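Let us work through a complete example step by step.
Step 1: write down the sequence.
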Amino acid sequence: MTHHDPHRTRDGRARRPLAHGGHRLLALATVTALGSVLLSACGDDSSASSSASGGGTTTVTVGISGNIFDMSIRVADAKGYFRKAGLKVKYVTLTAATGASALQSGSVQFLNDSPTNFLSAVGKGLPELAIGENGGGNPLGLIVSTKFAKAHGLTAGTPASQVAKALKGSTGGASSANTKAEAEIFLDQYHAKPGKWVSLPSPAADKTSLKSNQIDWFVTSEPVPLEVQNSGDGVVVADPVKVPAWSAKEAGYGQFVVTTKDYAAKNPAVTKKFATAVQQATNYMRGHLDDASVQQVASQALAGVPAPVIKASLPQVDWPKSDEMDTAGWNKTLAFVDKLGALSGKARVSSDDWTNTYLPGGSA
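Step 2: predict the structure and record it as tokens.
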């Protein structure tokens, strides 16, 4: 959900019916043009479409967010799961504003997407299809400044109720509507409200404001909070363990592998190979987060993040044994998104918008 800001470049809006006639054609043309422009601007060497090359290898491009939720795809690449399936994967880093348009234009064939982004696209009538859930829950951290922690006697082990009590009347920072809403989900459980919110443009701005004591705390996805703690500028006092409302058990799905309905229908073999390789990776990660190979992949993907921070961040995601989705999981996810207020209306998804067909042994 953040994801995470890594999530935090990802916000959603409400479902609306498909447009018709000339309006629909204009909308699709606009989406296609925008996707082409944004990828040209990226300067990435990724191919804009799936293409077969020598040896029966098919090249596909996947849109990623540059956060911890991308690790299942990175591990699938590093462990050779894509290669063994006859796929070569290239990457384009996208944001909430650019992901859907890149997918619709065909500039990327697959997108690693958050629930709010996906539900926003579906709500706008875009023919997106979720083909696997490759990360559960919300790997969030609430970090208070070192000064605030000392003044209120807060440590990493302080009970959630005591943390919430200390935050009453404090100054919180928020770099997205989602992170603010996620913080409020926690605080509302204890009837605690901050005295003031400061809107900031990014998690990096959150960090700077915390260090200079312009704010007392902020919430965003890992690894940012643990990075701040590692540098000695703050203390992480809440996470999905302390705040079950952020966890996969209560909040549902955190990330999806998404493609378009048209691409999946025309390229079922490639779609199945991609989804299967990602599931192999999430299954492997579930029991091998401490493996040197996984840590190395994460370190390379999250360049500059200290190794101890990466090691502590990876378990914050619920890496599924199976990427299959079900109605119960979707209901949890929709309820969480509704709590965030990220969409202008109630979150909706139908059985036409997701499928397990492309997963090993999966069914629609």
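Step 3: interpret the result. Confidence is low (pLDDT under 50) at residues 1-54.
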